[in-house]
Design goal:
By secondary structure, the chain is an alpha/beta fold. It is about 35% helix and about 20% strand. The strands form two sheets. A nine-stranded mixed sheet has the order 2-1-3-4-11-10-9-6-7. Helix 1 (about 15-25) runs parallel beside helix 8 and helix 3 crosses helix 4 (about 90-95). The radius of gyration is 17 Å and the shape is globular. Its EC number is 3.4.-.-. It is an enzyme of class 3 (hydrolase).
Length: about 240
């Protein structure tokens, strides 16, 4: 199982998703576009694509010139029937790829928050194991409209479209289900000044908040990660070549 991971910002981390991919024996290839702008040259070399979060918006083409190519790449993976996962900024890029609107600065959330699962979400493979409501980590200011043909799987009062699915296995999640308590702890140390600016007082209450919400969020995040990884269809290159010879 070969998975391409696009990291839009330094030290993003895979957290729960790393655990699920390791359990499945996946081979991960990192594309750190924040460093060199590199992206997969085609979709044949990977069975799935993950696009992680970042501080930029999904429309920041001028300052992040790789974005249009990444938008096209996510659509190519999805149209080929491969599993695609966009998290936070990744979900906003995915929404853009499928013709939705990016709504900048329209939905500010930070910290552990409750997410409601829609009726469609309760029966969807991604969220069927987390119940009708779950707590998960959030860090975003932007959101998006629902792409045409997409199914809304989760919602909150701040961001109506918290998770969606297109087709069989193209998923976007506005929330950071991958951010288990270890990842959040790392972010707390790495982005201290930013966190204090956007969420005054949160750092001082961190220990109490982590104690109250961390375990439940970790369990929900790992369940979601395992569910998405289970949807990756591995393509045997040798068999595929024989079949098309």
């Amino acid at each position: 199982m070969r998975v391409a991971v696009v990291e839009n910002m330094r030290n993003t981390g895979l957290g729960a998703l790393a655990t699920a991919l390791e359990e499945a024996g996946a081979e991960i290839e990192w594309f750190r576009v924040w460093r060199d702008g590199s992206l997969p040259q085609d979709i044949a070399g990977h069975d799935a694509l993950v696009v992680l979060g970042g501080e930029q918006s999904a429309l920041d083409d001028e300052t992040h010139p790789y974005l249009p190519e990444l938008v096209r790449l996510t659509r190519r993976f999805g149209d080929a029937g491969k599993a695609v996962l966009g998290i936070c900024l990744g979900s906003q890029i995915l929404a853009r790829a499928y013709g939705a609107d990016n709504l900048l600065g329209a939905a500010r959330e930070f910290g552990w928050h409750s997410i409601g699962v829609t009726g469609e979400g309760r029966s969807d493979p991604l969220l069927s194991d987390v119940g009708g409501e779950f707590t998960i980590f959030q860090w975003h200011a932007d959101t998006f409209s629902l792409p045409q043909g997409a199914v809304c799987l989760a919602t909150s009062p701040v961001a109506k479209n918290q998770a969606f699915r297109i087709g069989r296995a193209v998923y976007g999640t506005q929330f950071h289900f991958e951010a288990d308590t270890e990842v959040v702890r790392q972010w707390k140390g790495e982005f201290l000044g930013t966190i204090e600016r956007i969420a005054p007082g949160w750092l001082g209450n961190y220990d109490e908040l982590a104690e109250r919400h961390g375990a439940a969020a970790d369990a929900a995040g790992l369940a979601i990660a395992r569910a998405w990884v289970s949807l990756i269809e591995r393509q045997e290159v040798g068999l595929l070549s024989q079949a098309t010879a």
